Every structure is written in C-alpha cells, then in structure tokens.
Amino acid sequence: MYLEIKKLEKVYKDKIAVKDFNIKLEAGIYGLLGANGAGKTTLMRILTGLIESTKGFVLYNGVDINKMGNQYCKNIGYLPQDFGYYPEFTVDDFLMYIAAVKGLDHTDARKRVNEVIDIFTLAEKKNKKIKTLSGGMKRRVGIAQAILNNPKILILDEPTTGLDPKERIKFRNFLSKFSDDKIVLLSTHIVSDVESIANKILIMKNGKLIDHGTFEELLERIEGCVWECNFNKKMADSFQMKYLVSNLKTVGEIATCRVVSKNKPTEEAFEIKANLEDLYTYYFNKDGEVE
Amino acid sequence: MILKYEIKKILSKKGTLIALLVLLIITVCSILYTIHYPSWDIDDNTTIHGIKAIKMAKQEKSKNNAIITEDVVSSIINEYKVISNNSIDGTLSAEGWLKIQYIDDLVVLVDNSYGSFHDFNYYLCGQLSTSQSNQFYQNRIKQIKEWANSDENDALRYTEKEREYFIHSAETLETPFAYSYMDGWKEIFNGGALVLFCVMLVLCIIIAPVFCNEYQSGMDNILMSSQYGRSKVAYAKVFSSYIITTVVYWSSVLLYNLSVLLVYGTDGANCIIQTNRGFWKSFYHLTNIQALGVSLGLAYLGSLLMVSLTMFISSKAKTTFEAIIIPFVVLLIPPMINTRYMPKIVIDILNLLPNNTADSTSIFQEYNVYQIGEKVFSQCQMILIVYLICIIILLPIMLHSYRKHKIN
C-alpha cells in the first residue's frame, strides 16, 4: 500500500500553496513540519480529495485518486485543523452519524462507535452535548471520528491542539498501535509530538518539500552546528538579532541560549547535541541558511 | 440512519425550536381570535361574544338551510321588507339590524345577484320586488357576460379566449344552489392566510442552514472527505427537509382548521363556494370542502417550493443569513407591490409567487387566468404546473451545487 505524490502543485489566484511536491508514502507515521502558511493544510486537503490540484497527481496504489471517487474516500480518515461539529449533538449521536456517512451500517457503526469511545475514554461524556465539552475533549472526539472507518490513510491536521500533556501521551501511544499497516500523516507545530511519534519527517516551506527523512537523518544536517552559550541577560535581544536562537532561558542575571550556527558564536560557547527544535529553527529562519 | 440524523440536525437547533414555538403561538392565537371575535346581538343592550355567539348563530341561521329556489328568494325579499319596515331605500333601523342577523347570509346572496358586477349594496334587497325572484340565477350569468364583453379596463386586459372561459364557467355552474349555515368555512377562508404565511416563513428559517451550516461550521471538511458525504448525505438533507416541511405544514394547518371547524361545525361543507360570502363571482366549480382541499394543497405546494428555493440558496450560500434573506424577500415583498398600473404580464407573474398560495380568498375570488396557446388555465392549475416544474428543476441543481462545493 502506498500513496505517491508526483509533481503536485496547487495555485490560487495570488499564491502558490503547494509547489512541485514529490514523495512516496508507505505504511508508517509521517510528521509534516512547517510554519504557518507553508502549505500543509492545502496538501492535506488535496490528499483527502477535498480540493483538486492544479498540476500533478496523487496515486493510491498506482491509481489516480481523482479517478477513484468514493472508493478512495472509503480509505480516508481526516481530522481538519478547525474541527467542526454539531453543538447540539451528543458525542454518541455525532460519532454514529459520521460512522453512517463513512459507510458503516447500523450494527457495525454501533460496535465501532463503542470501540472508539473506549479507546479515547469518552464513555462518561458520550451522552453529553459536544458544545459542553472542553477543548481537549472535543479534539478527542475529532480524532475518534477520523478512525471510525478504520482507514488505511489517516490524515491529522494539528491533532494535539488543545490536548493536555497526559492526553498527548495517550494520543501518541494510540497512534503507535494504530499505524501498523497504515499511512498516517500528521501536521503539527509541536516538535516534541513529531519527535516521539513519527517514523519520518517531512519539512515543508513555501509550498515545497525542502527535506525529508528520519529524525536521525535530518539531525545529521545540522550536526556540529548547535551551540550553547551563557551571557548577561541584557545582551539577549542583540544576541537574538545576530544569531539563530532556538531556545533562550534566563536564570537570574544569566541567559542561556541554544544557537544554530556553522561557526562558534562566542568564545565560551560549546557544542551540544542537536534536537528537532534546532532543526525547525534551522529551516524556518528568515533566509533558510545557517550563518 | 443518515436521514434520521439529518432530521435531528434540523430539529436540534435553538433557532428551529424558537421558530416552531412562535408558529404554534401564532396558530393558537389565530384560533382563539377566530373563536372569540364573533358576536351576536340579543337585544339593544345585550351582545354575546365567542362560542356562545357562534352557537347562537348556528342555531338561528340553520333554520334557513334550504335549496335556493324562486320561492326562497321571494321569501327573503319579503322578510327584508318587513324588517326594514318597507323603507324605500332599504336602510335598516337599529331594531332592523338585530333582526337581519338571522337571514344575513341570504340577504347578501340576493344583493350579489341583483347588484352589478363591481358594486355591492347591502340595502338592495329592500328595493326589489318579489316578481324579480325568478332572475336570481340568470343575474349571475348576465353580470359576468356583460362585464366580460364590456369596455371596462379590467375586462379589456383579458384575451377573448379568457373572457369566453369566464362566461362558460358561469353558464355551466350547476343550479340551484343549496344554502346552509357555513360560518366555519367562511372563517377558515378568511382567517387561515396568516397561519399559512407564517408556516412558509418558519419553514424557510428552519431549512436555511441545511447545506450552508456545513460550510459555516467546517463540517464540510469531514463530510466531503467521507464515502457518502457528497451523495447519501445530500439526498438525506433534501428528504429530511421535505419530511419536516410536510409534518410542520400539515400539523399547523390541521390544528387551525380542525379547531375552527370543531367550534363552528362543518355544516355547509358540500355547499358550493358561490354561496359563501365573498365568492359569489368565483369561476371555480368547487364546494367549500373541495375549495379548502385545493387551497391547502396549493399552499403545501407553495411551501415545498419555498423550501426547495431555500435549499438551493443554502447550497450556494456561505452563511445562514444569506440563505434566509432571498426566500424572505420572495415572500414578503410581492404583497407590498401596488399592481394597479402594472402591465398584465407583471401581474400574471406576481400572481404565481408563493405568497399567493397562502391567501385562498384571493385565489378563489379573483379572475386570474393564463392563456397558453388555445387553452386557458386557472391560477390554481398554473401554480400546480409551474411549481412542480420549478421543484423538479431546483432539485438537481442544488444537489450538484452541494456536491461541487469548494472547501474554503
């Protein structure tokens, strides 16, 4: 099973949202990393069949998804960034409705809804109206609806928004179990989520796929370019203007910085092991280059 | 299963519940008004109202139930003269007004028959002689023929075929007429328009979010990426809207009409509408109960059309407000337009708009016809044909519009 994206492009009136995007996705979890406006949501909407690309193809097992129609939708589970719901529906009503829309008959729908309610610990809230739930609970309902049809391709746009740390851990654990023979593509700004779940990371900038690989492969790009320095906190602003800073912590009068730079920024700086936040800073600085 | 939840989606909204509650209040108020406003004068100082008045009217007027023959017309003329103390111009004293209540309906019929096509004079009965009583039915045919063949402006706007249609209708109306106490039917035709109009407005409000709410709430992202999101969901939305329209419409109209008939009685159901006050000149050959059936059927069709139009706009609109505004304009603006100096084609189009189906009095009283080729169609027939065609055209367009919706 694979999803192949070939020379994908999406052009709006005044903007190119996705440009020359090429990748082959096989079973596993892919983390899609990119700044706001990078084109992640547009890409996901093309993959879910919600919008058509201007150029290029998306092939599912070698077949163009635009020619598959409803047959492709059977394999899709999607959680949009702005999860819409029906405020007056209970959790159970909502999930049963979505199950029906996804093609499950009544018996299968009932069984499957009960299963996802258990998976996401929604049993206590199942007869409550969705509008009464907290943001995190609503998000869980959103993720639950995405897996009702046990999709082969699960696309999650900012799935952990609003989840507290405990819920995020549960979500990661669920996803690890779920993704055995499935393609999971999730976009997020929370690099720690990508770090701990994704098998492969796709870096998207200005509509393009600028890099991809495993966590280790990507970190090799900035090996030897991450430093830690300490200085007086009054110099913090000027330091940030001069260097790419991925993290700044202040304790008393001393500021401790993580800097991404080819050259040692200060005499006292020492090299440290890179992490995904450093990678994010490296790719999404102003010029896209390490200085 | 999808259908069940689509119905639930519509009915679970606060706006829906408020709209239905308002409709119920208006319907109940209309019933209460219809029941409480009638009055009956017992004597100079005593007037009864409400149900007592209705019962009194029924008791007294029913004594006059009869087939309207020459003898009956004669007796009405005589009785009027006695009540008016043989006044030359037929005017009544205060005492006369008390007594005329009992034969008021029949007096109006006589006045209609012996008056002119356009004018009505309540005191005319007192100016007639019993030797004229054999002209009761011929008068009607003569009135309509003379008017149709005249140079009056309102007659000239009709084609020759249309005028022949009116004359033929008058000549073939079965006589003699049977008169019966029929206040219930009178009240239904006069008072039902408000309920019907409100039903249409409320249905537009309830149904407006059916498609556009998915766009507004962001649910279109999930629905459109699901197996049946563009197919079964679309059909379920349409069916659920029509089911709700049917239930809301018939509950409201049956509540109003059955309540009124329960209090007033169904007497006069099989009397032709020409014996009902205000319908003397009507060219429809219908009894009261048939006319009610036709008017409720047309108003139901009008409701289905308004709901179809609302759904069509909803499939294209971004917000519920946009989806409501056009149906509201279609319903509320036309009745405010003064058509006095407008060309016939404009008037003909305005007469086909859905607001007309709420007003059965106008439909049966007015001479609205349409000539297509050699055939003349009544307003009722045209509404039936045009509305069915419009609904059939709107359905696939709205479904296509929803299916092709582009996510923002």
From TrEMBL, chain A:
Q: Read off the CDD domains from this record.
A: ABC_drug_resistance_like
- List GO molecular-function terms, semicolon-separated: ATP binding; ATP hydrolysis activity
Q: InterPro entries from the xrefs?
A: AAA+_ATPase, ABC_transporter-like_ATP-bd, ABC_transporter-like_CS, P-loop_NTPase
Pfam families this protein is in?
ABC_tran
Return the SUPFAM superfamilies for the record.
P-loop containing nucleoside triphosphate hydrolases
Q: Could you tell me which residue ranges the ABC transporter domain spans?
A: 3-231
Family per similarity comment: Belongs to the ABC transporter superfamily.
Q: What is this protein called?
A: ABC-2 type transport system ATP-binding protein
Which species expresses this protein natively?
Lachnotalea glycerini
| Lineage of source species | Bacteria, Bacillati, Bacillota, Clostridia, Lachnospirales
UniProtKB/TrEMBL annotation, chain B:
Q: How does it sit in the membrane?
A: Multi-pass membrane protein
TM segment ranges: 16-35, 188-212, 233-256, 289-313, 320-337, 376-399
Q: Which InterPro entries match?
A: ABC2_TM (IPR013525)
| Residue ranges of domain ABC-2 type transporter transmembrane in the record | 16-358
Task: Give the top-rank taxon of the lineage listed in the UniProt record for this protein.
Answer: Bacteria
Q: Could you tell me one molecular function GO term of this UniProt entry?
A: ABC-type transporter activity
- Major site of localization recorded for this protein: membrane
**Keywords (A to Z) from UniProt:** Membrane, Transmembrane, Transmembrane helix
Q: Which GO terms describe its cellular component?
A: membrane
**Compartments (UniProt record):** Membrane
What PANTHER family does the record point to? INTEGRAL MEMBRANE PROTEIN-RELATED (PTHR37305), MEMBRANE PROTEIN (PTHR37305:SF1)
For this entry, the protein name equals ABC-2 family transporter
Annotated organism of origin = Lachnotalea glycerini
